[in-house]
């Protein structure tokens, strides 16, 4: 029975069960006068099922795009993934709200490894990425 006092047998809707009536926020009758529940607005941002966490930037490539300036691609080491699963990503396409800490860590690690970060378009790879099989052609070559 819905809260308006009508049983499922009196409803013109066929094959409605008590569970359907009780679980629903609406009565099973098409013209029920029972007030509808107001839906609460959800402010929770749903993350897509395929979201990944950036562990670190382990390489960089700057490319000049005509009319758009410099685009920086970073070799991204993803959290819980091996180096062979790292990917080259444009900084602006990663959707990072605050890439500052990752960029700072990248610059510090480059300094630690003695890598000069200049304004050129050369590929920069950290030792662990190169040891894993990444090349300056931005390709992964599996070591055997």
Automatic annotation (TrEMBL):
Q: Where is this region: Disordered?
A: 1-23
Q: Where is the Chromo domain?
A: 52-118
Under the heading SMART domains, the entry gives: CHROMO (SM00298)
GO biological process: what's one of them?
chromatin remodeling
| Cross-referenced Pfam families | Chromo
Which SUPFAM superfamilies does the protein's record reference? Answer: Chromo domain-like (SSF54160)
CDD domains from the UniProt entry: CD_CSD
Q: Report the superkingdom from the record.
A: Eukaryota
- Any idea what this protein is called? Chromo domain-containing protein
């Amino acid at each position: 029975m819905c809260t308006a006092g009508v049983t499922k047998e009196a409803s013109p809707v066929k094959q409605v069960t008590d569970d359907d009536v009780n679980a629903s926020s609406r009565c099973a009758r098409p013209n029920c006068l029972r007030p509808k529940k107001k839906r609460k607005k959800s402010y929770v941002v749903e993350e897509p099922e395929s979201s990944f966490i950036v562990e670190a930037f382990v390489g960089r490539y700057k490319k000049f795009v005509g009319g758009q300036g410099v685009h920086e691609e970073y070799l991204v080491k993803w959290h819980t993934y091996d180096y062979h699963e790292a990917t080259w990503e444009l900084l602006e396409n990663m959707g990072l709200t605050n890439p500052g800490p990752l960029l700072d860590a990248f610059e510090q690690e480059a300094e630690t490894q003695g890598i000069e970060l200049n304004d050129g378009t050369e590929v920069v790879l950290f030792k662990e990425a190169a040891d894993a099989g990444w090349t300056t052609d931005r390709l992964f070559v599996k070591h055997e």
